């Protein structure tokens, strides 16, 4: 029986690539979406078209009760043994002009969403004595970024949570890691960074690809990465 994997934010650029990579690796993939369920359904269908198993699931990661209800409905089919926490948003502004909503919303999706999704899955995962938890963070959580105090705070918080949770789960053969991308080629990124800016900021003179991020995630959830845990792994073209 194939292991089951849940990818939050599976309808986004990195999320789609991760879902596809996990499907190709033989996992049964649950593609989470919220505001773009049509995209999540399309990702699941693409995996099925290639002979894999996948379904789309809708819930708001900031709503703890709704999230738990959605996850409870998954459990009768078997535990989730691979979790990729990819859901996140940004809402940039200098902190002097940042609104309360900008601060709380970004923290709520990334950091509180991590807790709302991960915590209900832990005991079922622990009972299997095998698991992989990977959280997609950002270079902003490593080195900071002007105009992103809220986003950097959320991602840095996830780094601390990753290290602490890895210690709690190590004896149960469950690894916990974070992947911190730099500038990755997605439609949003290309709208934000001009080609000359990317060449100036990134020593490798290019943006990374979503497939490169997904490849790193695929390694971290594999048996080959059984001794890798509690790590914040940057993928940023030597930017930091």
Full CATH superfamily name? NAD(P)-binding Rossmann-like Domain
Order of helices and strands: EHEHEHEHEHHEHHHE
Task: Count up the domains.
Answer: 1
CATH fold-level name: Rossmann fold
- What's the shape? globular
Between the first and last Cα atoms, what is the distance in angstroms?
Answer: 40 Å
Largest sheet: 7 strands, parallel
In round numbers, the mean pLDDT is 96
Helix content: 40-55%
Number of strand elements: 7
Detailed description of the structure:
It is built from 9 helices and 7 strands. It is of the alpha/beta class and 240 residues long. It has a 7-stranded parallel beta sheet with strand order 3-2-1-4-5-6-7, with helices on both faces. Helix 1 crosses helix 9. It is globular. The mean pLDDT is 96.
Task: Output the keywords.
9 helices, 240 residues, Rossmann fold, globular, seven-stranded parallel beta sheet, alpha/beta
In short:
The chain is α/β, with parallel strands linked by helices and 240 residues long.
Fold blueprint:
Elements: E1 4-7, H1 13-24, E2 28-33, H2 37-49, E3 54-58, H3 64-74, E4 80-85, H4 100-128, E5 131-136, H5 140-143, H6 149-169, E6 174-181, H7 187-192, H8 195-201, H9 210-220, E7 232-235
Parallel strand pairs: 1-2, 1-4, 2-3, 4-5, 5-6, 6-7
Helix pairs in contact: 1-2, 1-9, 3-4, 4-6
